[in-house]
UniProtKB/TrEMBL annotation:
Every NTP pyrophosphohydrolase MazG-like domain range: 33-105, 181-244
Protein name according to UniProt: Nucleoside triphosphate pyrophosphohydrolase
Gene3D superfamilies, sorted: MazG-like
SUPFAM superfamilies linked: all-alpha NTP pyrophosphatases
Lineage: Bacteria, Pseudomonadati, Pseudomonadota, Gammaproteobacteria, Oceanospirillales
Length: 278
């Protein structure tokens, strides 16, 4: 049986052009603008992360395709307005990555290669410093006035907090180790408790934000991604609570009529089962 024809990148770009055609295209696609696609882009990026965390690799080509489709959308907008096209995106990206990896492309072009040193033997600290130096040069070329200028507002709050604190750290605005971050957490928790006792709702929100920011700083010092850590906790909570629901359901009693001690017992049972799993 003959293999079905496999579509190419150019086919995908043609597909987008047809979808956006005012006469022959899809009304929904024709109506879209830069801003209307952004929420879909964020959603698709999170769905990629979710598939990876669930190790659902059979779903990943579809999820990555959905994310790529968002890039194709923006490229089509740019092409329609005479700003850029998809191949401009590819060119700018490739040129930028070559420039940021002189330890891989020593002659500054794609065909050049490092000789005599395996990747495992390259000084990763020096590579990181060069990477940040290149990015700093790029920010300067864009006339950025602050180290924080290019950190997107649309990032998830925990990720943005990590980037903000990490960028400030490069300027020396940081504790020497995680102990300073731990002490800051204790300080912010105490300040939050004061506002809770005083009943100052607006101040509570500000102090809670400060506490969360301090926790993100600790995560950075421990080299832990706070988004991944919190998503993992959310998954564990969901699994444990589902166990509690099933256990209460088996007893024939509604969960909202079950006393807290019983719920806690089922919760601890769920944690025990987790620990015993290989």
């Amino acid at each position: 049986m003959e293999e079905p024809q496999r579509y190419t990148l150019d086919d995908l770009l043609t597909l987008m052009q047809v979808l956006r055609d005012p006469q022959q295209g899809c009304p929904w696609d024709v109506a879209q603008r830069w801003e209307s696609i952004v929420p879909h882009t964020l959603e698709e990026a999170h769905e990629v992360a979710d598939a990876i965390e669930r190790r659902a690799f059979d779903e990943l080509p579809g999820e990555l395709g959905d994310l790529l489709f968002q890039i194709v959308y923006y490229a089509q907008f740019g092409n329609e307005e005479g700003r850029f096209d998809f191949y401009d995106i590819v060119h700018v990206l490739t040129a930028k990555m070559i420039a940021r990896h002189p330890h891989v492309f020593p002659d500054g072009h794609l065909a050049s290669r490092r000789q005599g040193v395996a990747a495992a033997d390259v000084n990763t600290s020096a590579v990181g410093q060069r990477w940040e130096s290149r990015k700093a040069d790029e920010r300067q070329a864009r006339a950025a006035t602050s180290l924080l200028d290019d950190i997107p507002l649309a990032l998830p709050a925990l990720s943005r907090a990590r980037k903000l604190s990490g960028r400030a750290s490069r300027a020396g605005f940081d504790w020497p180790d995680h102990r300073g971050a731990l002490e800051k957490i204790r300080e912010e928790l105490a300040e939050l408790e004061v506002e809770i006792e005083a009943g100052h709702q607006e101040n509570m929100g500000a102090e809670l934000g400060d506490l969360l920011f301090a926790v993100v700083n600790l995560a950075r010092h421990l080299n832990i991604d706070p988004e991944q850590a919190l998503r993992g906790t959310g998954q564990r909570f969901e699994s444990r609570f589902r166990h509690v629901e099933k256990a209460v359901q088996a007893s024939g009693q509604p969960i909202d009529n079950t006393d807290l001690d019983t719920l806690e017992r089922h919760w601890q049972d769920a944690k025990r089962i987790e620990r015993e799993q290989p």
